[in-house]
Structures
1.
Amino acid sequence: MSDNHIPAEQIAAQYRYAERLKELGIQKTYHIVTMGCQMNVRDSETMAGWLDKCGFTKTDAREKADIIIYNTCCVRENAENKALGNVIWLKELKKDKPELIIGVCGCMMQQEGVSENLKQKYPFIDLVFGTHNAYCLPEYIYTVIAEQSRVFEVWDVDGSVPEGQPVTRNSAVNAFVNIMYGCNNFCTYCIVPYVRGRERSRDEKDILAECALLRDRGVKEIMLLGQNVNSYMGGKSAFADLIKKIDTLGIERIRFMTSHPKDITDELIDCFAACRHLMPALHLPVQAGDNEILMRMNRRYTREKYLETVKKIRSVCPDIGLTTDIIVGFPGETRRQFEQTLSLVNEVKYDAAYTFIYSPRAGTLAAKYEDPVSMEEKTEWIEELIALQQHWTAETLKKQVGRVQPVLVETVSARSDNTVGGKTPRGHMVNFGGGKELIGRIVNVKITDAGKNTLKGTLEE
Ligand code: 5AD
Ligand code: SF4
């Protein structure tokens, strides 16, 4: 067992708090708003698990909830502003409903001074906690409800691995499975290592047990999660070995994210050929196409090395869907350097790219770098990049027309009961005629049409 596990008795104590709340028989509804990445989505599922254990009920209507929790993100400034704006707005709700409990948690709370600031400035906030102590939610809610006092508790300690928490998942078809937490890479623009702590991996047996349980419950697809899954258990072949083991469990589809390009091993690439259930899709954030920028980002690969990795992956798995993250306007980036990003996008021809204007994060190295390019110019650059990527996305989707693809059906369309949506192995979303009885099934769909970001098809069976 990893030495950084949270002792089982501490988790057991939380179950006791939940039990005590349940015994109080307070009927409360809760609503969790999740901002940011998949990691936060998974954390919110655990919080929902705890709140259900407390005897509370989930509601989709924020206005009707007795407990509202905001799970925040701080990776870019606009995510922070959005969270803060939303939370401040809750003050109005509380005017009409003084017993409303307002909680704020997640990455933003781990930043220095944030919790204290919220405590002083916003007396209507009842509860603040961070990413490292989220497993204490029942205790905190108990304190707020039974002892009628505010709780502002954020731990500075580096993270740990909490096992045995309850979880209420958002979907019965696909599920997130954490394999590791934290990040050691310290890319110079990124706040994540500061708010999520150092890398720590879950024990293989715990991951396999969770996957087997999900399989038994009928889950069809699992997404293995980590800030850098390639450094699972310290790196090398451990992650590939883990995938090979999960592949034998009989879960239909396996995906993972995120992979740092510097840590992609040949063993992992081989998994795309060797593992039947590993889907041909890979998110491989490049961030920039220019070597000097990559170096100043501390990405520890060159453009050439990245392109070589892409080539290797495509030689093993020609039909793989590659996606990426790109930052535009890193401090000091020149127009010519940005053009290197454009040319890299033309070389790789991604299925999709998530593009961001660089946002300085206090405490990171890059926040101290000089940044002479105006926001106006950066906005023009990102628009150019988005247009270019839209071209390649459209090209990729067009090439799918005429193919018959196994689609895992996930949703019924919001617009029509007779249209369902799901993903191809490569990760393209397909909408086609069918009823809700198809949800959770993998069906053959003939692709008939390509839109801007999604495909249309007809059921083959
Ligand atoms: N500014 C802009 N984008 C950022 N990202 C991370 N930090 C920043 C920042 N300071 C982007 C990276 C990363 C994605 C999750 O968010 O592209 O891969
Ligand atoms: Fe941030 Fe880099 Fe770690 Fe990703 S690998 S979380 S970009 S520091």
Note: The longest strand covers residues 404-412.
2.
Amino acid sequence: MKTATATKTGARTKYAWRELDRVEPPKRPVPDRLSDFHEVSRPYDEATASQQASRCVQCPHPNCVAACPLEIPIPDLLALTADGQFHDAAELLFNTQSLPEFIAHICVEKRMCEAACVLTKASEPVPIGAISRFLLDYGWTHGVKEPPPATATGQRVAVIGSGLCGLMGADALSRQGYAVTIIDSAKAPGGRLVNGLAGFKVDRAVIKRRVQSLRERGVEFRMGVVFGRDVTTGALRRSHDAVLFALGRTEAVPLEIPGAELRGVCQAYPFILHHTSDARFHALPVNVEGRQVVVLGGGDTAMDALRIALRAGAGDALCIYRGDEAAMPADPKEIENAAEEGAQFVFRSQPAAILGNANGEVTGVRCARTQLGAPDAAGRQGVRAQPGTEFDIPAEVVLVAYGFAPPRLPPCDDVAGLAVGQNGCLVVDAAQMTSVPGVFAAGSIARWPVSMIEVMRDARKAAAGIDRYLSALRKV
Ligand code: SF4
């Protein structure tokens, strides 16, 4: 068994990876985790971060960067970290990336840069995600400064939506000297990361800290403002030089199989909200205490639903997914965390019907085994049910986590001129500009389906597109 040496910084040699095993960040004990909704992993200490970074061989043509949609300077960050130059490394991260919180906490690195790392062929990849998380925390606790914003351009940009996409766009634009106003119907900025999801991936305090720093930079937040009711595109276009649509997803994809109407079959997202948000609900929360809970789907919402069901006292929490584990859209870290906490998984199976009793209550899920096919346009593996392979799984509660439909624009004539594609998304060009000049869109309103990393990349592209559009106007 290879062990990490106890030096403060990693000895940067070409073959350090042969001497040092990959070390995962420490995790909180499961009983502790099951009593709250907070993050599971803790950051590395300085010695471990440095040693792990020293495993990088500094490839001349790094696969990790090629696989990163955000073009993060990964080898440079790792070299500085390996040499113990944590301040410089954190500064590089803060200076080259909008909202490093999202990169450090939300990126699915095991499917992106780490999957592409050249070391996967001979050993295990450099833990790039955990090192980014270390640098983020180091930067905040040691007062690493972000670069000051550019000189004010005198131009104003309205951003509709304060979630991942809106905050990314606002951060990039405010750094470039634009006066940014964010509009959102929610009371608190941060989208689902603050107003909905549990803090398993990122504690809400981390997002709130970023919102506060955006406020200090001059970004204005107009919360509780409903787009389409309180404000329209036309009004925003008149009062701002550009508009960015960054609306998030709200409508869940329904379950459309026999028995979907039975009592005990519910959408997973409202179930999550009942446990994690301060919002008031008309309906009572679904009681899962001591019950057999089945979750349908394989994304992060499904993982959150499993883990919250276990925290709410479910007897069992079992996930049914049509593909195999590698094809699940959820972050592999979240799948692992759910399994550690007691969630069970049935792979390569899909529900054919929900079973019920004479009282109209759910009693089980009839499934069929699936056969894997070619991936679809979005890279998701195609599957088809195999006849004659049906089997039943007992269930008292079924939580549906099939994702969300693209957000719909409110029916007001201001937005009628925006071209909408067949999938319901706004049509955008390479700079994320819609069919209306000066109106841009990114995130799930412009791409569907969309991953979080694509949201971040498109928000950054939109900010660059807005900058080019407004720079050209300044020269006229
Ligand atoms: Fe380092 Fe891996 Fe990137 Fe190569 S691919 S530069 S070893 S992190």
Note: The pocket of iron/sulfur cluster is lined by residues 56-59, 62-64, 74-75, 78, 117-119, 126, 128 (CB under 6 Å).
3.
Amino acid sequence: MHAVEIIEKKRDGLPLTREEISWFIDAYTRGNLPDYQAAAWLMAVYLRGMTRQETVDLTLTMARSGDILDLSDITDYAVDKHSSGGVGDKTTLVVLPLVASCGVPVAKMSGRGLGFSGGTIDKIESIAGFNVNLPADEFRRLAKENGIVLAGQSLQLAPADGKLYALRDVTGTVSSLPLIASSIMSKKIAAGANGIVLDVKVGSGAFMRNLDDARALAQTMVDIGRDAGRDVIAAISDMNQPLGYAVGNALEVAEAIETLKGGGPDDFRQHCLHIAAHMLKLAGRGERWTDASEVEKLLIGQLENGQAFDKFRQMVQAQGGDVRMVDNPDLLPQAQWTETLVAETGGTVSQVVAIDVARAAFELGAGRETKDDPIDLAVGVKVHVKVGDEVEAGQPLATIYANDEARIPRAAALLRKAILIVEDEVQPLPLFYQVLYSD
Ligand code: URA
């Protein structure tokens, strides 16, 4: 086969065969094709799109480009979750122990944050000593013995995606539906999942800014899952305002711990209960956990009886983390300076623009611009209001946590822009818009 013929075929809008896709991707992954040909191909895909069959073929080729985790000696049906990324999204920290506390093993590989979106691996590293770099046998041992493990991507999972993603990042080809869908699903399939819950975010703080695009992405991933023999539930959730109140690594861990202890912000708690319920539904395979209200009761019970928290504590201990920080979150990294913004007038909160809150946290040092930048685990923002809340003049709207006093004014300006108060009545934002199922 010739790379240029495959590029030309896609350029002309013709569908590629499975053989052409796998030849092209394998050649590129092995270093036998130059970046410029892969870049041209990516741009052709970006402009011409892909059929459902092409998208499935691309996903499976990328999934098979490296190790495929086999979890069959740990469970005969592995469930996993993935969020398309949002502001204040610390869901994994709660949902993993919550689901594991119900007896469903969870062995999760998560990523680090880049740009405005945070990463679970950075967040959990706020707990001193927590080791995310686990060798494969240790990862499996913890999954088997404790039913819970959370690590960075230490295995060679879907290396084709890693290489293509880096190229997409610098060639203006990230925001392509088939490329995003195949990128996410290839990693989930390589990570050994039989059942996958996708949390597809929509709104100002998400990849997908409008509901139509989010629906299309969710549907494509559900279709890939179905064609690849995986069960998928895709929940489209709101990301116009931050999830919960905390945005910033240690602040989010503290909020997750509060939630695991039965408290936490109401929206975040409800969000976690929904995602966990979807995971149990998949794990039950139509035999268990079929009654939604019973599942909800079970999950609330696990938060209130301390078992979900105990699972989290067990995970931290097993991975070398300082459990004193879990028992007393005041011991987590703390910022030197705090400043609270208050409402200048009374009224109703009409927006808390997620991307601007993320920019404020980024300004304080909570995120990284390139993958090797250091991050400050202690800094960030806590918003105190949600869309639809009534506020009075002088009421706290947000608190800034900084380690560099000079960065506070810019973060404050971003937060003032993010939070809008109006005189009219405003409806709260929904948590979820739609849920799609593969069967
Ligand atoms: N997340 C991924 O893993 N890949 C994409 O292409 C976009 C978001």
Note: The chain is about 45% helix and 15% strand.
